[in-house]
């Protein structure tokens, strides 16, 4: 019989500590246990400490490789760029003067043809790049150049020579002012004492090394990121939270494919006596070092005396549950980004009509949020260009009555599943004044001015052709439809009189 342990002072202290520890937590989420091994007892850290420069570059390099080779990441980036931007996000000047508005929009149209320093991208191309930057790089932006163009900057080009932007070498021959500046620089973002960005350190990355770093004042750089919390300085790649899931899914797919190939690649093996001399002669002619280690589908192999082969079984291959499991994992990945799995796999047609509408409404919330994130970036770019036009004397306005910096951005709209219901609803909203013609035209990637201009040209052409071919009414060329109207017969007769 084993004698019970004596409750000495040390055991009593440990028990008291456990009691106090358990009573100190009012939430189960704060308790760490064997079943919650991934929870860490750690201090609350800023994002630039939780994701330092080395880890940031490692994540970006991994996600760039996924962007090139992984179909899921390629689908996510494509959806972000095409659905958020579509045909482009267009400005609508609201200065208070229609003539000034038309002039501003015309100048912006000319600028949009080649706004970037390399002159290889249009405004739509730039907007697509800005929309997808947070996915891979976490952040990025545009340098406002003195030439009137901009330069797109990925997030991996923002940084300093120090690992985390705050390390000061004790034996470095730098001034005290420079040391103080480096202390206030986090991840390449130089901050004021009030934690306001005052400059960005941007370089060129060659062979994985950030070189030729220049200090760009904040007034000359438009920074684009998404915040996790208010005090955050740098953006975190949105795909960082699902990187492991994407890699697990890719590896699972590869293993299943390899297993299916092995199961499908069965070969017949014939063993015969006295084949040693013949087999060795055959192998020496082809390759002296060749051994029977691989099989090709549908082939017969002859073994040496004493050799034998066990055929791999085909049970359970291909795995009938693999597709459902992969869809489940992709659904989790899409949920983290606000993208239904049906959009990732382009399988929206396999659901019911009401379910499809529900998915579109959920996805529409994600797209509208992304579009709203881009509007402040574009508004600052608009103010910068308008200020340059005013300084160069290309734009004149009355500051008391007109505001050329006031602008509204028209993003592309969503199309409904039921096209007929969409047209009817758009007409009703337009009649009520709840929507403008710009909102409806944006669904088709254009604007109200272009629609009205095209309509005016069509009417002019119809009148000319009707007169040329002797058609009494030019409206007959527009395939007239039967229409009905309701009204009081007395009022109609009075109106005719």
Summarize the structure.
By secondary structure, this protein is an alpha+beta fold. Helix content is 47%, strand content 11%. The protein is built from 16 helices and eleven strands.
Compile the SSE list and pairings.
Layout (H helix, E strand, L loop, with lengths): L8 H16 L22 H4 L2 H17 L1 H15 L4 E4 L4 H15 L10 H14 L2 E6 L5 E5 L21 H8 L1 E2 L2 E3 L5 E10 L2 E9 L3 E5 L17 H22 L3 E4 L4 H11 L13 E4 L18 H16 L3 H5 L7 H39 L15 E4 L8 H14 L4 H6 L5 H22 L19 H8 L1
Parallel strand pairs: 9-10
Antiparallel strand pairs: 1-11, 2-3, 2-8, 4-5, 5-6, 6-7
Helix pairs in contact: 3-4, 4-6, 4-12, 8-10
Number of helices: 16
The topology string of helices and strands comes to: HHHHEHHEEHEEEEEHEHEHHHEHHHH
| Helix proportion range | 40-55%
Contiguous uncertain segments of 5+ residues? 163-171
Strand order of the largest sheet: 4-5-6-7
Q: State the major sheet.
A: 4 strands, antiparallel
Separation of termini?
A: 119 Å
Structural class: alpha+beta
Morphology call? globular
| Beta-strand content estimate | 5-15%
Got a strand count? 11
Rg (C-alpha, Å): 34 Å
Mean pLDDT: 80
